C-alpha cells in the first residue's frame, strides 16, 4: 500500500513564526505536491516537485516555499506565518508516468495561526 | 486557471439508492485523465476512480462508475446502492492543461449525505 505521512495532524503557531510541514512517501514517487484546502474552495495547489531539488509554483505560492533534498521527502515552509495561512494542508505524491499518475494523499495537517 | 464545475454543493440520498454527482470541466486538450476522490470527515483524500479521455468504455470500480461524456466535457460519478459510509465530500479532479507533470485541478466538491 502507498503510504504518505505528514509530520503533524494538528499544529498551532503564532503570527511571524517560521513553520515547517513535512511530508514523506514510501513509494519511490517522482512527483510530490502541497495543497491547501479551505471550506468552499476545494484544493488549491501551492507547490509541486517532480524531482529532487526541483520545484514548480502552483496556483497560490505566495507566502510559501518548499524544499526537496531527498526523493521521499517534501517540505512546505511558511517563512513568517500569518493568520490567513490558517488552513488544512495536504501533501500528495504520484509517479511521473502519465498513465499511472494517481495522486495519493497524506492525512493532512490542520494548521492554526494565532 | 482551469475551470472545474461541481454544481451541487450538497446532495442527499437514502441508503441503498443510487446517486449521481456532477462534474464538468473546461479544456481544449484531446488527451487528459479524470479522477474522483472521496474525503470523509477524517480529512484524508481517498482515490476512487479514474477515466482516460481515450478510454472507450466508462470506468467502473465496484459501486462507483463514471458517466463520461467527452463531447460535453462532463464526467459524472455514479454511486450505486449507497451506504451510510459513503457520506463524505467528493471531488472531481481532471489532469488537463497539457501538463506532463501530473498536476490535477480540483473542483470545489459536493458534500454527500446518506440517510437511513
What do you see in this structure?
Chain A is mainly beta and 114 residues long. Chain A is 0% helix and 52% strand. Chain A is built from no helices and eleven strands. Chain A has strands at residues 4-6, 10-13, 19-25, 31-38, 42-49, 56-57, 65-70, 73-78, 87-94, 104-105, 109-113. Chain A is globular and about 40 Å long. The mean pLDDT of chain A is 93. With 116 residues, chain B is an all-beta fold. Chain B is 0% helix and 48% strand. Chain B has no helices and eleven strands. Chain B has strands at residues 3-5, 10-14, 19-21, 24-26, 33-39, 46-52, 60-61, 64-69, 74-79, 88-95, 110-115. In chain B, the strands form three sheets. Chain B has a five-stranded mixed beta sheet, with no helix packed on it. In chain B, a hairpin with a 4-residue loop joins strand 8 and strand 9 (74-79). Chain B is globular, with a radius of gyration of 14 Å. The model of chain B has no long low-confidence stretch (mean pLDDT 89). Chain A binds chain B through residues 31, 33, 35, 40-45, 48, 50, 56, 58-59, 88, 90, 92, 94-96, 98-99, 101-108, 110, and chain B through 1, 4, 9, 33, 35, 37, 42-47, 50, 52, 91, 93, 95, 100-104, 106-109.
- Class inferred from helices and paired strands of chain B: mainly beta
Q: Would you count the extended β strands of chain B for me?
A: 11
Percent range for β-strand residues of chain B: over 45%
Low-confidence stretches of chain A: none
Percent helix of chain A = under 10%
Mean pLDDT of chain A: 93
Average pLDDT of chain B, to the nearest integer? 89
Quaternary status of these chains? heterodimer
Largest sheet of chain B: 5 strands, mixed
Chains forming the largest contact: A-B, 31 and 26 residues
Q: Which word captures the global form of chain B?
A: globular
Give, in order, the helices and strands of chain A. EEEEEEEEEEE
Q: Give the biggest sheet of chain A.
A: 7 strands, mixed
Low-confidence stretches of chain B: none
